[in-house]
Amino acid sequence: MQTLSAGEINRLREQEYNATVSYMNRIHDELAIMRLRPDFPIPPHKAGQYTSIGAGYFEPRVEGCQPEHLEPDQITKVVKRAYSISCPVLGENGQLLREQEEDFLEFYIVLVRDAEKRPPALTPRLFAMNEGSRLFVSEKITGHYTLDRVGPDDTVIFMGTGTGEAPHNKMLLELLRRRHRGVIASVVCVRLRSDLGYAGTHEKVAALAPNYRYIALTTREQQDLRKKMYIQDLVRSGQLEQRIGQPLDPSATHVFLCGNPKMIGVPKKAAGGTVEYPQPPGVVELLEARGFKCDRPRDPGNIHFEEYW
């Protein structure tokens, strides 16, 4: 594989990069919270939106990842991927993060070591970076997955798998800053407890905000295998309503779904105008059976979703 000199790499970094890693918290070898401080003022944006970050193919990768073969013209390019913007929710003083403290963009990243179609390009390079490393972040922040339709007294339920909770953390902060009066709940489903990178934060927030509920589910903890539960099970069994202390009322509840498409279960239009749900049932089908409705750009609803792949 073609290699570049240190001088060539430094020149490419100066030419292509516009942000610095200001914070890197490795939850474990395959999960990290990364903050970037851009060289430019952070554009105004809404909680729940996303932007792109990138690193050059000329950057090193962490060990233990699927080997890659780069074409000669690829080595000088930058690979970019879209990531939802996350948030620490709390500041260093243990209270809600103040707007003047938010001079960074936070991302919740899982290391992808191998993939079917092609070797993963970006995350093996992000995980080789440290505080002070340089990379690319887009100046454009966008997306329709926002709190725009939520009223001050509505119940808001966030449901995410893995790093799909990232936009929900930013949304949670926004609701708390607004002094939201309705119940707020965050449901997070992961394989192991060690994958709950924000668990400590959520527990502290629950102690600060009486209307906030945090529900963590694991599916591969050895001691929990007999009683493991997915988000769909939580909804289907009625335990979600028990945990938040009220029924799921579609007239005053908004549900936000982010992460694994199988958890979300977005329906597709079939021949004759009928709707087909993926099987096994995802959360969308379970909620629509109870009077909820998917939110579309020109057709408002109370189920909002962001699929991660």
Description:
There is one protein chain. With 309 residues, the protein is of the alpha/beta class. The chain folds into two domains: 6-137, Translation factors (Elongation Factor Tu (Ef-tu), domain 3), CATH 2.40.30; 155-307, Nucleotide-binding domain of ferredoxin-NADP reductase (FNR) module (Rossmann fold, 3-Layer(aba) Sandwich), CATH 3.40.50.80. It is built from eight helices and 13 strands. The strands form three sheets. The chain has a six-stranded antiparallel beta sheet. It has a five-stranded parallel beta sheet with strand order 9-8-7-10-13. It has a two-stranded antiparallel ribbon with strand order 11-12. β11 (268-269) and β12 (275-276) form a beta hairpin. The longest helix has 12 residues, at 166-177. The relative contact order is 0.14.
Write the layout of secondary structure elements.
Blueprint lengths: L5 H11 L2 E10 L2 E8 L11 E7 L21 E7 L20 E6 L12 H4 L7 E4 L17 E7 L4 H12 L6 E7 L8 H10 L3 E7 L12 H7 L1 H6 L8 E7 L1 H4 L3 E2 L5 E2 L6 H6 L14 E5 L2
Parallel strand pairs: 7-8, 7-10, 8-9, 10-13
Antiparallel strand pairs: 1-2, 1-6, 2-5, 3-4, 3-6, 11-12
